[in-house]
Design a protein that fits this description.
Two copies of one chain form a homodimer. The mean pLDDT of chain A is 90. Chain A is elongated, with a radius of gyration of 26 Å. Chain A folds into three domains: 44 residues, Orthogonal Bundle (434 Repressor (Amino-terminal Domain)); 130 residues, Response regulator (Rossmann fold), CATH 3.40.50.2300; 127 residues, 3-Layer(aba) Sandwich (Rossmann fold), CATH 3.40.50. In chain A, β8, α12 and β9 form a beta-alpha-beta unit. In chain A, α1 packs across α2 and α1 packs across α3. Chain A is 45% helix and 16% strand. In chain A, the strands form two sheets. Chain A has a six-stranded parallel beta sheet, sandwiched between helices. Chain A is α/β, with parallel strands linked by helices. The first copy, chain A, contains 13 helices and twelve strands. At the A-B interface, α4, α6, β2 and α7 of A face α4, α6, β2 and α7 of B. The first copy, chain A, binds a DNA duplex (16 and 16 nucleotides) through α2 and α4.
Chain lengths: 333, 333
DNA sequence: CTGAAAGCGCTTACAG
DNA sequence: CTGAAAGCGCTTACAG
């Protein structure tokens, strides 16, 4: 026998038509039990597995979903754990729905064409875009082509593409409120890059909470890397030597800030209280263990997949879903 | 117009046969330049993109490759950076070859059936298996079915499946030799789990190098996690309070060991020199910065993809490729 | 160099 | 409930 068995061969062996085999394979209820069994035996004996390409050609479905990861997240071979978390969440949900995950790296302009062509070639039923820098045109352009899309994080700029995000503003407020409740009075922040929603929103949350308390804001901006956290922290100390607390918009930057504080001879939390954001694995092992805001990365991945599957199935979905964040109190604040 | 344009429509618009359009799309050299241009214009005007399913059905190729990640690597939401590195390397190479990456999570027995069926459905042209615990039957079973497979790391047990691995034995020897050259005399090791090749080989390297130097070996076993590194380190100190060096089989375990040494009042490297393995991002930021063995994770991913593509193309490939490791000397030893 | 035709392996109205 | 037949959108010998 050459190659894998086909429907045709199963039909012949079972003594029925191809249509009937197809019905059995696809679980149609209108098949007489006796015939169903004969067919199933033939399938088992031959080790038949449906050819996906042939099936897609007629159903116009592929049962695969693309997950687009922005290139920049990968460029630095980073300690950040968002990528595996996203993948994990998305794949859990897709697996349960018996869909396949196609991974594409690259939010760079040069990758757009490739991704668009791929989606247009109907190689996937829909697209999940993990997160973006700036006002990426990709989600909108796919959306316009009628391809189901869900974004991770609110797209910047004009957009009607549905998205799933984590409540960054709320998380930042939790962090700042905690510092206020601990009696801190000069609360600075190391903000993230202002061309990313996470950077923008975490700073907005800081500002809003502080505003309610009448304290003035003290801001330095980093780019979510450890080094930038140290640099920003030094700058904050120069700007206000009397600051007694810092909300750092990412754990990685918080580690950098910790180093800078130590160099400057400040004790944490005695002199300066510190709260991070993300709750990466290493946060528990920092010295002192880092108080931080936990965001449900895996949950976000799952929710994105869930929404996309609904969209693919033709259902209506909310234009946005926001997941709650949570403060994890350890020793640094 | 309903749906996306087809070959047929392009042919009609260009006033040629479907065969000719197909030739132009696939870059056949036997097309008259003038006709080629007419067709290309029609393609551009219509925004034609070939339907992948239809193409696969006749070519019997899908131009996609599956990357299988073991579930366990994901279970702990870990600090380990191997996964993104693998993905990065594989996707770089596949992108260059214009192949797609399908990601499947799960080396668990329950996932085997799903993966096998998927490969048999010809949804992918070949399979890359990132790494395995124990003697996983998956590579062999795919191999027997005639599906091109390449493994990351030598498969345990009997196997004829080609693999790409990093020279763990050599790396461990580099580490131990370095400690010997620094004049250390009582060199212990925290080994990795002995059901994983990386665990086994790094211990073998330690033993071999030590054996050449006539020193006795002092061994404790961890499971590559930070916590297990601390536990193992305490045990080593109890076993031999006079040890003056440790080769730890992973950086994460080395971080745990560092904590345990600090608790025990030992200075690193003054009292005890420490060498890790992996060179994860955090190694540079440890206190003291960690001397460790760097392994080319991205390079391994790329090489696996390269070998698999050759296999898919029908070429012969070596039964194994071993990539060199390198000692990165920092302050801990 | 180009076209007519067969065929890849399925699903799905449409009859019966 | 089952089968004959059409058709999904391509590629590729085979003629010419």
């Amino acid at each position: 026998m050459t190659g894998r068995p086909t429907l045709e061969q199963v039909a012949e062996r079972a003594g029925v038509s191809r249509a009937t085999v197809s019905r059995v394979v696809n679980g149609s209820p209108t098949v007489t039990p006796a015939i169903r069994e004969t067919v199933q035996r033939a399938i088992a004996e031959l080790g038949y597995v449906p050819n996906q390409a042939a099936r897609s050609l007629v159903t116009q479905r592929t049962d695969s979903i693309a997950l687009i990861l922005p290139e920049s997240e990968f460029r630095v071979f980073s300690e950040d754990q968002a990528i595996p978390g996203f993948i994990r969440g998305v794949s859990q949900e897709l697996e349960a729905a018996d869909k396949q995950l196609v991974l594409m790296v690259g939010g760079s302009p040069s990758a757009h064409d490739r991704i668009e062509r791929y989606a247009l070639a109907r190689h996937v039923d829909g697209v999940i875009i993990a997160s973006m820098h700036g006002a990426d045109p990709l989600p909108n352009s796919l959306h316009r082509m009628g391809i189901p899309v869900v974004c991770g994080g609110r797209p910047l700029g004009r957009s009607t593409v549905p998205y799933v995000e984590v409540d960054s503003v709320g998380g930042a407020r939790l962090a700042v409120r905690h510092l206020l409740e601990r009696g801190r009075t000069r609360i600075a922040t190391v903000a993230g890059p202002q061309d990313m929603v996470a950077g923008i929103d975490r700073l907005a949350g800081y500002r809003r909470e502080l505003q309610d308390s009448d304290r003035r804001s003290i801001v330095a901006v980093g780019d979510f890397t450890r080094e930038s956290g140290a640099v920003a922290m030094r700058q904050l100390l120069a700007d206000d030597p009397h600051l007694d607390a810092v909300f750092v918009a990412s754990d990685l930057m918080a580690f950098g800030a910790l180093t800078a504080l130590r160099e400057a001879g400040r004790r944490v939390p005695d002199d300066v209280a510190l709260v991070g954001f993300d709750d990466v694995e290493q946060a528990r092992y920092a010295e002192p263990p880092l108080t931080t805001v936990r965001q449900p990365i895996i949950g976000q991945g799952r929710e994105m997949a869930r929404q996309l599957l609904r969209l693919v199935a033709g259902e209506d979905i909310p234009s946005s879903v926001v997941l709650p964040t949570e403060l994890v109190v350890r020793s640094s604040a």
